[in-house]
Write a sequence for this structure.
């Protein structure tokens, strides 16, 4: 038998929280609304939770609605939620303006998901998105899980990512 280990009792930062909003369907067999999440985590030292939006392609209204909802979570009293907004990298000028808008409104990061949003991280338009996020001081979280393209995480190295990192 493995030796008994002490239970970790320090601060927790949850970097990947998809919460249900409005009439969204449940995730799995349980409700995952903000208050449900907070109840489920009340016995740990939750310091912060990155609440994530996921922007659809070519739907400005829905992208704005999802981003506004995630931003609103951070305005709750004593909220642990850090708003990580989203744009679709192939939405061109709209995506760039949306990054500027959500940064002004308090976004703490940007979430992109190549598999779900169906874009290739090596696409030059993705670089424009990352550059704009960087200009606004927003870290970019790439959810790189892709069972359909195992090379996807490596593709982003085809452009000089290092030039986007602050010195």
């Amino acid at each position: 038998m493995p030796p008994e280990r002490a239970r970790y009792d320090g601060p927790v930062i949850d970097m990947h929280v998809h919460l249900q909003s409005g009439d969204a369907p449940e995730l799995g067999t349980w409700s995952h609304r903000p208050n449900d999440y907070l109840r489920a985590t009340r016995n740990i030292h939750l310091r912060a939770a990155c609440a994530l939006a996921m922007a659809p392609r070519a739907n400005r209204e829905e992208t704005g609605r999802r981003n506004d909802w995630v931003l609103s979570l951070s305005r709750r009293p004593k909220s642990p939620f850090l708003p990580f907004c989203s744009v679709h990298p192939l939405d061109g000028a709209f995506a760039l303006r949306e990054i500027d808008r959500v940064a002004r409104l308090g976004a703490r990061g940007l979430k992109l998901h190549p598999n779900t949003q169906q874009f290739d991280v090596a696409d030059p338009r993705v670089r424009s998105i990352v550059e704009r996020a960087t200009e606004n001081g927003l870290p970019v979280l790439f959810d790189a899980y892709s069972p359909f393209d195992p090379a996807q995480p490596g593709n982003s190295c085809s452009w000089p990512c290092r030039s986007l990192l602050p010195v």
